[in-house]
Design brief:
51% helix
Length: 158
């Protein structure tokens, strides 16, 4: 299993490397925030660990580039914000898990292991926010075919 980490904060990079080095199943490579270099190396990673401290435009540029190619790489956000709406935005963009700074030491290795197996690892408390976002987005879509048929039938019967 491979793990790639793209981060600008040396302390966080060292912390992540130390946490993942405790497990023999991980090979960790720390990347600097140059998107092109990170993208080339991340293409072969199972899990791409991205720090919330990186500018969103860099994170999203890297994710867009990564999703344009056939890849099994799954992104994990560390030092995640506590705001549920922000977190839903990261999930919408493709993150399959996130960890707050407080939980990093305790949960990082297990989450990388789960995500490397192509599983989503989201805490239950974010699910209602994701469902609400789904409902909001769905409200922008045209009515479904069945609803249209029912409306037509009602009008015809009147």
């Amino acid at each position: 299993m491979h793990d790639r980490h793209h981060d600008r904060n040396a302390l966080t990079r060292s912390r992540v490397q130390a946490l993942l080095a405790e497990r023999d199943e991980f090979r960790t490579t720390v990347l600097e925030p140059e998107v092109d270099v990170a993208f080339q190396i991340a293409q072969i990673a199972d899990v791409l660990v991205l720090d919330h401290q990186i500018e969103d435009r860099i994170i999203f540029h890297l994710l867009r580039a990564l999703y344009r190619i056939p890849s099994e790489t799954s992104p994990l956000l560390i030092n995640a914000p506590s705001d549920p709406q922000q977190l839903v935005g990261y999930v919408e963009r493709g993150f399959v898990g996130y960890i707050t700074e407080d939980d990093l030491d305790e949960r990082l290795a297990d989450m990388v292991s789960i995500i490397a197996q192509q599983q989503v690892c989201l805490p239950p408390d974010i699910i209602p926010h994701i469902i609400e976002r789904y409902r909001q987005l769905r409200s922008f879509l045209p009515q479904g075919l069945e609803t249209r048929r029912n409306d037509f039938r009602q009008r015809f019967d009147e």
